[in-house]
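Bench notes, afternoon.
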Amino acid sequence: MLSTLESHINHTVSVTIADGNRITIDDLVDLYRDFAKTPIPISGRLSVGDNEREKCLRIDWKVRDMDRLEATKHTTHHSIKLSKDGMTVKHITTVGQPLDVTNDLAITSRAKGSHYMAVVRKGAKDPESGKTKQWLEIWDKTTKVKSIDLDSVEEHSTLILDPLLSNILWSPNGKQLLYVAEYKPPKPQSYYKKVNKTLENSGKELDSRDSRGQEFVYREDWGECFDGISHTVIGILDVDKDFKIQTIEKSGYSLGQPFWIGNGDQIGFVGWAEEPRRLGITYCPNRLSFIFTMNLKTEDSVPQLICGTENSSIRNPRPLTDGTGFVYLENKSGSTHRQASRLLRYSFELKTSEILIDTNGVREIIDTESGLKYGKISALFVEEITENCFTSDGKFLILNCFTELQLVLCLFDLKTKQLIPIEFPLPSLQLLDLNDNVLIAVGSALNTKPNIFVGKLNYSDNTKPLVEWKEMETNSSDLLNDISVDNFYIPSEDPNKLLTAILVSPKAVESQPTATVIMPHGGPHSRYANTYMINPSLLAKIGLKTLLVNYRGSIGVDEDYVNDLIGHVGDNDVRDVVHCIKYLSDKSLIDSSKLVLWGGSHGGFLVTHLSGQYAHMDFKACVAHNPVVDISSKFDGTDIPDWGYVEAFGNVKPFSFDTPLDPNLLRVMFEKSPINWISKVKVPTLMMLGKRDRRVSWTQGLKYYRILKARGVKTRCHVYDDNHGLQKVDVNGDYCVNICLWILENLS
């Protein structure tokens, strides 16, 4: 996609950056390359070493290869040495050279006892369907023992690898592999295609006739990022039975997140309700779902419902180490897409669930020497529970928790129900794996590249820290050393709620009022944290500050804070962003005469709102990435039609599957939308759209662009062959460079 830039611009032409210096287009492209080649840890796995004081560690890293214009993956192997008492990490040694594993789609740990390992590998692309072939490989300690072409198996279709649905686990005896796959329906045939004579002679012609005329039947799927995934099943591969595959299906439910129970005679799994309609599931842990179990040793056994109600959404069941039950997360189905989660524990003996952490905690505002802040965590905001999450004695659970400005690792006591944050020198810490109380985590900040940290949990000695961290040595550059980051807690219109914001600045001008990009987050029930991101760092390198704004409705505070926005989008959130701008401007940290807007999705909704509602603020440029500009017309072209109801009407008008929008509802939605203010817009506006976006149809941004163009407002529109996130390597490279050029052009 960088060729788009090359065809219009002489690379030797220079542009003025915010600090007054000039750089060439090539310099800007090279700057993006420097950020793109930063390796990002995406998974880590600990295994037992030669003795009890040694661990083996495998880390998988993702890199954007700007020469091949694709995402690549490589793995590194390391040896971890513990102290003599086994309580601290003494050394982390890299073993061998990095190995490219781009074609490895998934890999399991070795099964206990049998030492089998499973690898899902990417094969060639099918010229007809365009789908990439999948191979499932089974390895023992010394060699590959089986390769299975997953496209040719009759039991199911594509293996599901997204962790939202998937889990690939060996049974306790190490002989059976549990996984998730898409159901394989009969292959549809045209009425006008002759029936295969071989099939006819074999007596299978009826199967063929059953699927005739079914080629163009609509198959609903799970939306954005899950194209073609409609009805998932559980698969079990048995190594001892000549790699026979058994599938478990339940009509009306897509099954996923399976787990073994006890000695492997039973399994459990989550089932997402498919009726009356599949709504988009990505970033939406509020879809109606339940937990089922099934006995594998009983013939004609069927899935049995054990957890869930008509208004609950359940995910991430994790078996307790003593086998007595499991913990899991629960949200309300419907309502906001992201919200505080309950943590519950299910008992097999009692056949009931106990609430460990509820959603009704209220975050206290405390007065500190540096001003008002939020007190200790009172509600649980988590994306998922990691697979290996329990301490070796089974008494504690490790959770990745979102707070208002950080990603924090917490130790949860299953007996006292106390949630204890684990201290860490950086503001962002995310657990990758836990083995024998050794933690593998990724730490980062907006001005610190991600790296691996290793530590040993110590909760028996109160005189020592919970974890003493050891950072893995890397060849990381000093690309971010000249960037500063400041957090702000800002009083809002509501005395019981604080707004939060992060100002990312070039160190040379951190205390001066300079040109600033205002960047509200999407969602709207998401949040910005002080964790590594390319975009603010890239802007800082061209002399620009970035103000990352968390408005009321963001996650990380408490449930009441999240619900404060519903029914008030286009009003409360917009005013909160303006309030943060004025707060920083009054402190002479940003220049109110040189403000730029940049936002995606609901962030795009906000920046287009600001450019219309607050046109008098004279913003210099606006960048909108797959924005919602008209809630009323978005309704029928999205995988999340419930979003419009919840955000526009709150709890006053619940979403209904069987009732169309009436003119009054459409009017309210329109009035809450940026399109209602488009006649006021004068700011130069760049639209960045993905034509494969199923969350916010690209026609939303296209409509806005066409109206601005007709009104004589300076505008441009880029349309990419990508989905909502615009994260393909070639796409994002073009996206970032063109946005920087647009901002610099209009600031000057």
